[in-house]
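Async update (no meeting this week)

Hi team, since we skipped the sync, here's where things stand on the single-chain job. The sequence we agreed to prioritize is pasted below, unchanged from the tracker. I ran it this morning and attached the output directly underneath so nobody has to dig for it. Comments welcome in thread, and please keep replies under the output.
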Amino acid sequence: MLSQLSPAVRQYLIVTGNYWAFTLTDGALRMLVVLHFHALGYSPLEIALLFLFYEFFGVITNLVGGWLGAHLGLNRTMNIGLAMQVIALCMLLVPASWLTVPWVMAAQALSGIAKDLNKMSAKSSIKLLVPENAQGSLYQWVAILTGSKNALKGVGFFLGGLLLALLGFTGAIGAMAVMLAVVWVFSVLSLKKDLGKAKNKPKFKDMLSKSKPVNMLSAARLFLFGARDVWFVIALPVYLAAEFGWDHAYVGGFLALWVIGYGIVQSLAPYVTGKRSGQVPDGKTAFVWAGVLMLTPALIALALSNQVSPQISLLGGLMIFGALFAVSSSLHSYLIVSYAGRDGVSLDVGFYYMANAAGRLLGTVLSGWIFQVAGLEACLWVSSLMLLVATGVSLALPSQKASSTRY
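Output:
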């Protein structure tokens, strides 16, 4: 069936399939590590430190990965990412006595490199497969890819909790390693075109963006994702298990449903932000949505501090936060692909996702530390403060050209 499609569409479907398969294992692995090591008695800060190298090397990978993509081609960087994730999973198949904090951090570092090579390759590919004068179509394709990825990441959260309950930590990791190895073999055999190779080979110094719109959007992205992860990554799942008494499968299942819903809203973002009227979002749109989002964690924190139905306040607030965050994230994902230069697109996209990874790194470390020291409410107030900064930075984003609105 794939052979009957045009080469560009066939290429995109294979790239997207790779991205989806990787995302399943990435979400499941995160949930496995959080729940397994919490059950072993690790503190929230110690669990956060397990992801320190995952996020840190994601920062480095996005910066260098864009340069590699421009030189090697996006298909090669994607295949390298898949292979590295298989190796990272296999590193966790060692005897339980070997699963020390440094060893798990090293495996997570490899997984972080793999994840961001994979994401940078997939996101950059869209820029080259959509006509340059069709900004509306570009927004829609980016929203679909981003939304579907996050929905599958939610499935991965559920899968991680379920596999941990059914197969145990080692069995779950082994099953995922086998599945992803099969995907990697198919990818190596199927992806041959060097999509994304720059005509003018960029120098190493060109990794840093010289574009003001890209730089400002990257700064906004850093604080946007820091604001999410400062309470969502470590604090929330541990709080649900410790305060509400939820078991592993229940925590994984709930967070899975949240991320799935978040992904669905992301894919529908073009309809929410003006597709029906033919409008293409710009920097002002990103500013408005970030400003509204900023209020949500503060309101949740106020409700919790005043003991206003804690479960309803937290879970209901999480739903609202997820919907608003999904639209903001989807807007950002479109804007970076739109702002990026066409030749060597992976450089701008890589720089932007370097800021994204830096935000996740900051949020993850703060999530473990602040939750351990001051609790969930403090994490929520820090989230709101970060969103205030993201809103302010978004004021500097330019308006999008109105001439390219074709869907």
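Quick observations from my side:
The chain has one domain: 2-192+207-394.
The two ends are 26 Å apart (CA to CA).
Reply here if anything looks off.
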